[in-house]
Amino acid sequence: MQQGTLMRKVKSKSWKKQRYFKLQDDCMTIWYQSKRTGKTESAFSISDVETVREGHQSEVLQSLAEEFPPERCFTIVFYGRRGNLDLIAGSAEEAQCWVQGLRQLIEPRSFPLTSVLVSRTWIRDWFQKADKNKDGRMNFKEVQRLLKMMNVDMNEDHALRLFQAADKSESGTLEGEEFVLFYKALTEREEVLSLFQDFSEDGKKLTLLELVDFLRQEQLEEEGTEELAMELIDKYEPSETARARHVLSADGFLMYLCSPEGSIFNPRHQTLWQDMTQPLCHYFISSSHNTYLIEDQIRGQSSIEGYIRALKRGCRCLEVDCWDGPNGEPIVYHGHTFTSKIPFREVVSTLGKYAFQVGHWVALRGVGVEAHGDLGDLMSQSCPQLCRLLGGSAESHGGEGSPAPQVPTSLSLQELKHKILLKGKKIGRLEDTLDGPGDEVPDVSDDDNGAEAEEERRRMKKDKESLAQALSDCVVYCKNVSFRGFQEARSHSRPSEISSLSEAKARKLIRDAGNEFVRHNAWQLTRIYPSGMRTDSSNYSPQEMWNAGCQIVALNFQTAGTEMDLCDGLFSQNGRCGYVLKPPFMRDEETLFNPSDPSTRQGPGPVTLAIQVISGQQLPKVANSKDGAIIDPFVRVEIHGVPADQAHQETKYIENNGFNPRWDETLRFQLHVPELALVRFVVEDYDKTSRNDFVGQFTLAFANIKPGYRHIHLLSKDGTSIPPSSLFVHIRITE
Which GO terms describe its biological process (predicted)? Predict the structure, then answer.
């Protein structure tokens, strides 16, 4: 990779340009040179790469499948909205060299960097950025430039003292280990050292018993604390001598606090920790809206990338809108708009590859069918294709010799493991289908426009006979039915059916009949979708829908913001499997709970959440900020939950310090329904004349918070990690 490789960069069937790609000596950036012009420029940074996919795993490379074999093709996927980079190497060996090499380079980022034993590659990257004359040394002027780049506005005298202390050779420059010494002095954590000394008798080490005291008194670890203390020493103490004596140094103490065990997120809840044998309607389910779109709803691009990104994010309910296409082939796109189109078969193939990569739990597919007659038959043929791809995982009872399924009285998540459920329109009820043809209950359209909805009903009635019976037979467990009120649903609906409601309709039901809505969602699935007016792919707040127990709250995954932060925050637990068990009082069909009246919740009284925001570490600069600009950071803590719990508080802002700001402020909140609360930590750059700029955030469910002294590892606007940026806090929860 460092020698360089000539490859084809492809954007379409006709756009294939040769580029000379080369990994730079810093092992952090890739440059390319145009073969025609000879111009060299930066292609991308390793820190921007999310993953690398081998073979024909993009629309462009699939379209070139006959021209180039999969062994020579690979796709580089970037974080955020940046488009993928499709490359074709000269040989399979060269392709593997880049695929394996890139994977090795991005792997270390999976563990957050600490402020003491920080990655040498990361330090070297900063060094080389500031070393303007590339002589491998750094004079004081270059150090000052480095501090600006690292978001540090340090007093010049203090910076000079640190520089001179690190310059052991007294050459007036820093090199190699001298720069590492300078960096360690720069990142010294006074607040952590003070805490360490509070529990250390000699101020130099924590004995095993002293560490046990800290874990019990501050971290509120109750069981197996001695075993835990031994594990932490073995895992995080850098000195072999100290490990042999079962003691923890100040460096090891900081390593622990910056580790997953020292995170605010309970590490036990990051794995599968909830009961997975409940009926499907007892879970919140990670769900996307118009999954195929990666931009807006009118002219945006449709792409299988939308499905891949959603599935890798833990999404379990996807949408596939199928329409008549050219050459007798069904296509997927947002009907009656200018969005681009993708073949239905490519969507099916993508689901086959990615449906169960993140977890083994059932995946739901909402299939909106606008293809009729022969095209409907073509689509129904793709459902067995999906079965073949996934080893019979699609739940269907079409085809000769297939046993007729029993009408399910409840949908157990455990029983549906490794299954794909098709959610869509069906000719007749399931029990009618098993006994013979019956009358279809027309489904409402996923559109807020009443006239269009009425037109949809008329067209459905007219085209009922033309919809392929085989496709209808694939819908077993999740038949779409119209919602005509809670009493009607209780009398005529089945647990195997599902109703779709617009966000406006759902809000009205929550406002007018909150308790009835919660009861309804205790036994039947409800899907919520965004207003048709959200043409920019913006999102509504999912929290108010979860408050009423709605399971399938569909969001536009391509749009970053608070709403997707809440979605990622809720579903980051339970092994990121896309299912979160609802609280007991929302699974009871006779529950008295009403989200607008917290006193109806059964259980203990409200809790107080006290958050001491102590400090921040190496906060990133605001995107597109001027050279030399330093942020003025402050922290806002938001509570998202039932209306009575909605709240936010802020710290003061710290002028010109994004490197190691200190706040030492305590924010207090009272939570009446903590089981539904999400806590969002937001860092912004204060601006007295214009809107504050976003710096970083982290969101998690209240149930996943670990008390004590904890680090919060911040995420970017699109939910990706930005190491080593973090907050240091102290958490107390009292009833």
Answer: intracellular signal transduction; lipid catabolic process
